[in-house]
Every structure is written in C-alpha cells, then in structure tokens.
Write a structure and sequence with these properties.
Oligomer: single chain
Structural class: mainly beta
Distance between the termini: 11 Å
Strand order of the largest sheet: 4-7-5-1-2-3-6
Order of helices and strands: EEEEEEEEEEEEE
Shape: globular
Number of domains: 2
Strand content: 35-45%
Number of strands: 13
Radius of gyration: 17 Å
Helix content: under 10%
CATH architecture of the largest domain: Beta Barrel
Length: about 160
C-alpha cells in the first residue's frame, strides 16, 4: 500500500531531469521546484507515469499539490527530492484527495468519507470506465462541497482508481 504524502506550494522553477548517460530518456523527466511560502521547499521528479489530474499543464507560478510515497527511499539532500506520483494544479472549482480508501470508502487518515451516487464517474488513470466497487483501493477523488462532520462526507464528482 502506498503511503501518500503531499506537499503544497508554488512552482518556482521547472527543469529537465537527466536520468541516464545515453540520452534515451532525455526530455521525458522534469524536476519541478516547489516552495510553500513559509520557508519549505521540495523538488519533485516528474516522470512519464506521473498522473496529472485533469491532464492540466503546469508552469512557473502555479499553485500545486504533489503526492509521493512516504515509504519510498529518497536521496539524503536538501531540499528533499521526491518522485511525484500524482500532481494537482490548484482550482477553486474542485477539491482533490489522493489516498487509500477502505471498504467503507473512508480515507486512511480518517478525514473524508465518500458517498457514491449514480452520477459519480469512476474511471481508471487511462480514462477507461471502472465498474467495480472502489473500496479498498488507492483513489484520486475529485469533489466539491463536503460536510463539516468528522470525517467530512462528500459525494464525489469523479473517482480515478489508481490500480
């Protein structure tokens, strides 16, 4: 199970990231520098398999949240450098939660519970329909308003199942 951790901030720089000496992956990997405004910063390594919610292009100055595996090994450098699994460009029109959801559709951190409706779109990361129950899986949940309860409850607009 992936231990999703996140870092939220503003992109300050985007560079190509060299992965080998033969040039095979040249231009396919990016290093995105993100600062949180209170002195914290992170470098995200973005690969061709990094999932960008809504396939949105990012640029310097954009507010983003990057998700990475908190259990994955990382180089002992500052600022920390994480392999980005999911990237979300900030939008006032929607909220996004990336986490493992149990059989009751509650997030692993206990902050969000999902209520499915017939209008909840469920897809795979490749855009194809997902027809099974989404519980006990890693999910990218896109939603609007949520209750003020603990855990907050929402009926998501879309669930992206990350197999």
């Amino acid at each position: 199970m992936v231990n999703f951790m996140s870092f939220h901030g503003t992109i300050t720089m985007i560079n190509d990231f060299v992965t080998g000496q033969d040039g095979e992956g040249e231009g396919c990997y990016k290093l995105i520098f993100v600062e949180d405004g209170s002195g914290g910063s992170v470098n995200f390594v973005v690969s061709p398999t990094t999932y960008f919610v809504d396939h949105r292009m990012v640029a310097v100055g954009d507010r983003i949240t990057g998700y990475y595996d908190g259990n994955a090994p990382v180089p002992f450098i500052y600022p920390p450098q994480y392999r980005a699994l999911v990237m979300v460009k900030e939008s006032s029109a929607q909220n996004v939660k990336v986490d493992y959801f149990n059989s009751q559709l509650e997030s692993s951190d206990g902050t969000l519970r999902l209520n499915l409706s017939p209008y909840t779109q469920m897809v795979l990361t490749n855009g194809q329909s997902f027809s099974k129950y989404p519980g006990n899986r890693n999910l990218i949940v896109i939603y609007g308003p949520a209750t003020m309860s603990i855990p907050a409850q929402t009926t998501p607009y879309r669930i992206i199942v990350w197999c």
